[in-house]
Write a structure and sequence with these properties.
This protein has 252 residues and is of the alpha+beta class. The chain has one domain (9-232). The protein is built from 3 helices and 10 strands. Strands 3-4-2-1-7-6-5-8-9-10 form a 10-stranded mixed beta sheet, sandwiched between helices. A hairpin with a 6-residue loop joins strand 3 (30-35) and strand 4. Helix 2 (155-184) packs across helix 3 (203-226). The longest helix has 30 residues, at 155-184. The chain is globular, with a radius of gyration of 19 Å.
Length: 252
């Protein structure tokens, strides 16, 4: 048989930006010095640098990548373009992304914007959908069923808790989001041709929409109890390297 491969762009999230490795002679390439944290070896790489990526998420999973360690992989599609976005498994980018992704309509387009806040060295990924900023589903004030940190001042307890949280979030992705994505985008279509429009009677799609709408309604109701104007909800204002994202009150 004859066939063609989809054109997939591989992206890393680093220093508050989306970065694509390219050859040094690329006319738009920017050079950056990178250091391997394990060996201490440094080298100069050539990259294309982006502020955000837009499209539909078709897959989220974790895997080991040679030379990079464990990564979260977010596969996205925008028309005939495919993107593989690698996020360090234990990074602030991963925690911020995973805390928000359960508050989106996973069947719809969204925008991911990495950020790095210099004042408190906090990294994250903001999500916007339909022009609105998506707030975290898990927060310090409302961690829901996330594992609790018993002793915040004990570094060993914090490390154990971080491992527990990552396992918890990976389980949530695998059991809550992956079945919906599989229903939206059958595996035989992923990475081969443009993803077909989801069937309106697909029970997984409908279930996903109901869950997301219920979460949004509950969050809005809780917000309106506290503030006359939801837009006046206070957030920590800190200058970020890119985008208009803020340091949300994440539980990490």
């Amino acid at each position: 048989m004859l066939g063609t491969f989809d054109r997939r762009t591989f992206i890393n999230v680093t220093d508050g930006k989306l970065r694509q490795r390219v050859e040094p002679d690329h006319p738009q390439a920017k050079e950056r010095k990178v250091t391997n944290p394990k060996t201490g070896d440094s080298k100069i790489v050539s990259e294309l640098v982006y502020d955000f990526v837009e499209g539909n998420i078709i897959k989220i999973y974790a895997r080991e990548q040679e030379g990079f360690g464990k990564q979260w992989i977010v596969e996205m599609q925008d028309g005939e373009e495919f993107f593989n976005i690698s996020i360090n498994y234990e990074s602030g980018y991963a925690f911020a992304f995973l805390s928000r992704i359960f508050n989106v309509d996973i069947s719809q387009r969204l925008r991911l914007t990495p950020y790095y806040i210099e004042d408190d060295r906090r990294a994250g990924i903001g999500i916007r959908q339909g022009g609105e900023k998506i707030k975290p589903y898990y927060t310090k004030d409302d961690p829901k069923d996330m594992p609790k940190l018993k002793n915040p001042d004990d570094e060993s307890d914090r490390k154990i808790w971080k491992i527990q949280v990552l396992k918890f979030l990976q389980d949530k992705v695998d059991t809550k989001l992956t079945p919906i994505l599989q229903g939206l985008y059958p595996i035989e279509y992923q990475g081969k041709e443009p993803v077909p429009a989801p069937e309106p009677d697909n029970p997984l799609v409908e279930e996903g929409k109901k869950v997301q709408q219920k979460r949004k309604s509950k969050a809005k109701a809780e917000q309106e109890k506290m503030f006359d104007d939801p837009d006046e909800m206070p957030t920590k204002k800190t200058k970020a390297k890119s985008g208009d994202e803020e340091a949300d009150d994440l539980p990490f």
